Amino acid sequence: MSATLGADFLPLLEHCRSLSSLDLSHFYCYPEDLPPALQAYPIVAASLSHLNILNNSSGEGYKSHELLAITSACKNLLQLLATLLSHATVIELCAALPFLEELVLDVCHNGASMELLNAKCPRLKSLTLGKFHGICRGIDSRHGIVQCSVLESLCIKNSADLTDSGLIAISLGCLKLTKFEVHGCKRITEMGIRKLASNLRKTLIDVKISCCKHLNAVCSLRALGPIQDLIKRLQIDCVWVSVQELQGEDTSLKKKCEFHNSGNGNRFSSMSWEKLHYLSLWIPVSQLLIPLTLVGLEDCPALEEIQLKIEGDVKSLIFKV
């Protein structure tokens, strides 16, 4: 290892003076190496508009002072992807990046605050947060993400205190959301997702629901009822229930569809996913896809692409021609 901090980056910064995008997510380095290298070449650092230091291959995140030094040098960033080792001062970080449009932050320890984010980054359109507390404090909250009124894309991962009330507050404050992702949030339910979808009916067209304790595949599909005629991209990585369970849960839903169908003989208008062109599903090995038809996913006239994630021991499968 070089005795000079940042020595590994110096040849790159010296010979690529017009560098505008830098992805270090798969480059092995120590977090303390990058700040001095960027400070040594301020013109190059200032020319960067995209910086990815997420999932640093050394296995460590960036300490607050290291990340603040990086953002101070790269003051014209439009996109920042980063992992933090401790409770980074998020507001100080954002204050150094007034032009920021996309922010991805993963915190190795909970507790970072989202207060005043909108005031510091008024152009922020895309936000991904991992392991954050205090993203939203409830329906009546005027703090945190709900103030980010220009957000178009929001992804929340492994938030221990996100609730249905928080989802509703987000949907009332972030009225321009076209894309919403939620992963590993154990306290949200079908009701919260349904309220969010209903409030964002005019804009929301891209949804991903993944590994949330109270949201299996059936609940997730039901929750998206308010936008199922508008949604274009849908990814559900959830527990896929059996045919028997699904038939039991959806008896009332089936009756509702029959009622809508009996009037004029048309297809189930309440069950059609008219604009859906991309669908991604997670299913266990040997599970039938018959349940899709029971929740109306057979009526997807615009569908162009399906991706299936199969999990389990495929050796147990017997293929017949």
UniProtKB/TrEMBL annotation:
Biological process terms in GO annotation: SCF-dependent proteasomal ubiquitin-dependent protein catabolic process
Cross-referenced InterPro entries: FBXL15_LRR, Leu-rich_rpt_Cys-con_subtyp, LRR_dom_sf
Boundaries of every F-box/LRR-repeat protein 15-like leucin rich repeat domain copy: 69-215
Domain of life: Eukaryota
UniProt GO cellular component terms: nucleus; SCF ubiquitin ligase complex
Entries under Pfam families matching the protein: DUF7885 (PF25372)
Residue ranges of the TM segments: none
Protein name (Swiss-Prot/TrEMBL): F-box/LRR-repeat protein 15-like leucin rich repeat domain-containing protein
Organism: Carpinus fangiana
